[in-house]
Amino acid sequence: MESKKNTANLTAALAQNTLDEIPQPKSDAKEIVGLVKHSGKIDGYQLSDGSTVNKEEGVRMAKAGDIKGVGVAHRGDTEYLKSIPDSSDNNNLGSLPSVSG
Questions:
Q1: What's the pLDDT tens digit per position in 2-33?
Q2: Hey, which residues does 25 pair with through a beta bridge?
Q3: Which of 17, 25, 31, 67 is the one with CA 20 to 30 A from 47?
Q4: CB neighbours of 79 closer than 8 A, spacing ≥ 6?
């Protein structure tokens, strides 16, 4: 039992190490509830207030504390949002529905 808990903690710590930054969300921060995709690639995010933002605006908002539950990562020169690892797969960005932007 203790071994499973240690493995889960290690997995979460390793996943968090893939994030460049975990911004502190404001009390009124929005959540990402959907992904705007074109040709299978994420172009933006739908927020809990019904608005949609492009990827760059989403990163800017998350860094400013306006989006909760995400961290900032990068691939090459491009920054993007990733879910902060926890014990639930249901709230991962990849589990969210695709929406039209």
A1: 666 655 554 455 455 678 999 999 999 999 99
A2: none
A3: 17
A4: 20, 56, 59, 72, 73
**Is 80:55 a contact under the CB 8 Å cutoff?**
yes
Joined together, the tokens standing for residue 72 give 């900032």
More confident residue, 85 or 67: 67
Tokens linked to 9: 């903690």
Q: How far apart are CA 41 and CA 24, in angstroms?
A: 27
Quote the pTM value.
0.80
Q: Which two tokens stand for residue 27?
A: 């009390």
